[in-house]
């Protein structure tokens, strides 16, 4: 139902002028496309091939190539002509360095990652929520010699895929979760039936019961992960700590230990973030 006429009448009754319909911002589509391409390029620190960017962007190859070339001319991207891949350029590094001072989460989380890696021997990670995805920000290697390489700095997963995304999604409002888990044939084709809405919801229920999420090799067989959410000052889950490793290291009897360590460190960071600012 369109409520705009009713709103306009109410405003007129109060002597206010009706609010005109919002106009599309000129160039917004181009900005959205550029932001999408930058995110896609940043998924792989080793570089992303053009074909993969075209496939995942849904844009035509000429359009993608034109925009990538323009971004490279501005220093935001680099093109590796030998490997035929696209990477972040020096301007992105400069921007990231400037922005880092405003977002102290990495500084707060690093000690927790070190403790988790030292106490468990597994690789520990910090991921942040960005819209409908999680992005891995930090990694701390554990001492166990066999590792999982599914997760690394810059990699993105949809919420509900990987333990960090499950941990965050479990504590979002129900309506928001429903919208994120709407049936999507392309999503199921990309991530497999083990990531159907029903399967994800079942995992979310288990996560709410224990407080931590478990990914039992759903992305790559034999590669397990566990995660716990970090909450911002408003009580919303904005980040997650996670541990990854091979299946024998995540047996049921050890999951409780790993889960409690994750919850303890996530709680430590949450309490610091929620502490009132010093006047």
UniProtKB/TrEMBL annotation:
IclR-ED domain ranges (all copies): 91-275
Gene Ontology biological process terms in this record: negative regulation of DNA-templated transcription
InterPro entries: GAF-like_dom_sf, HTH_MetabolicPath_Reg, Tscrpt_reg_IclR_C, Tscrpt_reg_IclR_N, WH-like_DNA-bd_sf, WH_DNA-bd_sf
Residue ranges occupied by any HTH iclR-type domain in the UniProt entry: 28-90
Record's keyword annotation contains Transcription regulation: yes
Database matches in Pfam families: HTH_IclR (PF09339), IclR_C (PF01614)
Molecular functions per Gene Ontology: DNA binding; DNA-binding transcription factor activity
Organism, as annotated: Cryobacterium glaciale
Keywords from the UniProt entry: DNA-binding, Transcription, Transcription regulation
Domain of life: Bacteria
Region (Disordered): 1-23
Name by which UniProt lists this protein: IclR family transcriptional regulator
């Amino acid at each position: 139902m369109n409520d705009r006429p009713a709103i306009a009448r109410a405003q007129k009754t109060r002597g206010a002028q009706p609010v005109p319909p919002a106009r599309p911002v000129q160039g917004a589509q181009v900005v959205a496309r550029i932001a999408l391409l930058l995110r896609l390029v940043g998924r792989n620190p080793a570089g992303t091939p053009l074909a993969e960017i075209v496939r995942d962007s849904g844009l035509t190859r000429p359009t993608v190539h034109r925009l990538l070339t323009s971004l490279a001319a501005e220093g935001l991207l680099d093109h590796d002509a030998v490997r035929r891949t696209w990477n972040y350029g020096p301007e992105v590094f400069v921007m990231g360095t400037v922005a880092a001072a405003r977002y102290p989460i990495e500084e707060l989380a690093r000690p927790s990652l070190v403790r988790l890696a030292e106490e468990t021997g597994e690789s520990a990670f910090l991921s942040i929520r960005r819209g409908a995805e999680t992005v891995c920000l930090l990694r701390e290697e554990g001492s166990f010699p066999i590792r999982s390489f599914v997760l690394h700095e810059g990699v993105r997963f949809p919420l509900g895929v990987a333990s960090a995304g499950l941990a965050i999604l479990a504590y979002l409002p129900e309506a928001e979760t429903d919208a994120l888990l709407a049936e999507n044939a392309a999503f199921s084709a990309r991530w497999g039936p083990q990531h159907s809405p029903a399967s994800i919801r079942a995992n979310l229920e288990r996560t709410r019961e224990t407080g931590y999420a478990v990914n039992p090799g759903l992305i790559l067989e034999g590669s397990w992960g566990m995660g716990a959410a970090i909450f911002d000052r408003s009580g919303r889950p904005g980040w997650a700590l996670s541990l990854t490793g091979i299946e024998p290291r995540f047996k049921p009897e050890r999951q409780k230990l790993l889960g409690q360590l994750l919850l303890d460190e996530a709680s430590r960071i949450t309490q610091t973030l929620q502490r009132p600012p010093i006047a």
